[in-house]
Amino acid sequence: MSANTFPAQIEPFKWAEQGFTWSGTLPLSRFVRISRETVGSIDHQLINIDCKLSMDAYHRIVWLDGHVETKVPMECQRCLQTVEIPLVSDFHLALVDDESLIERLDEDADFIVLGEGEATIKGSIDAPASADLLALIEDELLLLMPLSPKHDVCVHKHQPADEDIAEEKRDNPFGVLAGLKGKLN
């Protein structure tokens, strides 16, 4: 594998023993679930990735450490224009092949059990576990994406301006009823 080739599938235990590291950029379009949330063209959008695998041989735990950074064009929920959402994540994930190993982790440690979700066991039970590295990184980025993306400051095209709200307060239709209540008492 060349230094610039990003591996889609990895064998975490084997590759951690070899000291796997990868650093580079990938097009945002490779991250299908994130791409569905974008607006406009993402042809030139890139994700910077640094990641490495290491092993705690005593506990049979592989650690995936990484840093990812990108900007995702999304639709602002206030003005409906494009807003660039920066996504930056530093992650430290435990990759375990047996759920009983989870109890050996710190209680605040993030973990993935190989054989569930994105990670799969190929062939027989004795076959080495493999994991979809792209999906693991995409999961980390998806956790950062806002449910309602917004500009910090934007023009609210679809909401009344402050002076319109003040005008509504002066022309309160219940004001007439309040005046009648005073005459009846």
From N to C, what is the helix and strand string?
Answer: EHEHEEEEEEHHH
Spans of at least 5 consecutive residues with low confidence: 117-127
Shape: elongated
Provide mean pLDDT, rounded: 78
Number of strands: 8
Q: Which structural class best describes the helix and strand composition? A: alpha+beta
**Helical coverage, percent range:** 10-25%
What is the CA–CA distance across the termini? 89 Å
Descriptive report:
There is one protein chain. The protein is α+β, with helices and mostly antiparallel strands. The protein has helices spanning 12-17, 32-35, 133-142, 162-170, 174-184; strands at residues 9-10, 21-27, 46-56, 61-75, 82-96, 110-113, 120-121, 129-132. The protein is built from 5 helices and 8 strands, in the order βαβαββββββααα. The protein has a 5-stranded mixed sheet with strand order 2-3-4-5-6. Strands 1-8-7 form a 3-stranded antiparallel sheet. A hairpin with a 4-residue loop joins strand 3 and strand 4. The radius of gyration is 26 Å and the shape is elongated.
